[in-house]
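Why do we bother with a discrete structure alphabet at all? Because it lets us treat a fold like text: something you can write down, compare, and reason about line by line. To make this less abstract, here is a complete entry for Glycosyltransferase family 4 protein. Read it the way you would read a sentence in a foreign language you are learning: slowly, and without expecting to understand everything at once.
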Amino acid sequence: MRVAVVHGFYRSDVPSGENLAVTAQVDALRDAGHEVELVAQRSDERMRRRTWPIEGALTTVTGLGPDPTRELQAFGPDVVHVHNLFPHFSTRWLAAWRGPVVATLHNFRPLCAVGTMVRDGRRCTRCVDESPAEAVRHACFKGSRLATAPLAIAQVGGPARHPVIARADRLVVISQRAADEYERAGIPGRRFDVVPNFVPPAPPTIPSPRAGAGERWLYAGRLSREKGLPELLDAWPGDRALDVIGDGEDAAVLRGFERPAVHFLGRRDNAEIRAALPSYTGLVVPSQWPEAGPPLTYLEALAAGTPVVAFAGNGAADDVARRGTGVVVPTRPGTEDLTAALDRVVRERASLAATCRTVADEVFAPSSWTVAITRVYRAAVSQPAGVAS
């Protein structure tokens, strides 16, 4: 099958699981024998232009901007797989494109200006329940009403009128939680296919934490409010070592939580994180937002045989509870809750590690993803192009 993948890559200096997922998916499709053309725009290149802020805002509001149609026509795909178009690509080409279109909704941006459904550390659905103007009132995007306004304007009319949602023959989400969230917002559940992300297999020989080396825990991700680091650090036991890997808009504030047992290590690339994961007692995922699915770091931990402690309500916690890959604690745990969870992982680490590896191999393997997504592509091809089901 000839598959064209359209994606606007986020900045490389900000960790993006979505960028990693799309790149891995392109490789997996090629490995499975598909012909794949990646049609991309990249923030690293476009943001060098002085006019970029205005261009991005105009593209978001009007749907006018870089158009992939010429490249798509030259390739002649059987199906076009759209990932992120914001804020790089035009959306108007979608209505004119006559071939099958599959779209993956990696986040909740059609429902929320920042794509997280969280404001001030708590779940927020005001843009869906009331009006997108709520996002402007609260300056949700980058703390700026001016920067938020284009996103709010693009949401007028509701998610059913979002150009990608309206045009796609099949909509892909990476968890049932995401499908439920979109259905609550008015998109029929029958339009969705749940296809979880995957990670490449870990090396065949995986080192475990050294005997007698003591516990060491890991947080790896963006340093921003919705990721739950303030809640984690407030409750973190002072006698447990925690490494914090990542960077982000709240890095300076969060470093104020640094103390003898908590170490901020800054940014590390994905290869470094994957190599380090097996040596940790466990990964902690404290996200406060619902998330569209388990983060890639969670899947990487499973492949490494590293158990997970997740805060209730996030995508990792859903999967931990379902598959037994660690322990779930309350959304805002006390130190006692967290201590009990960490102690349990230490006691049961060998069995939890085995479960993690089994789940990674059976559920989140590249082959599982390619089988599932090929089924989605065939379903899109078998129905009239451009007709929303």
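What the structure line is telling us, in plain words: The mean pLDDT is 89. Residues 2-111+155-198+366-381 form a domain with the Rossmann fold fold (CATH 3.40.50.2000).
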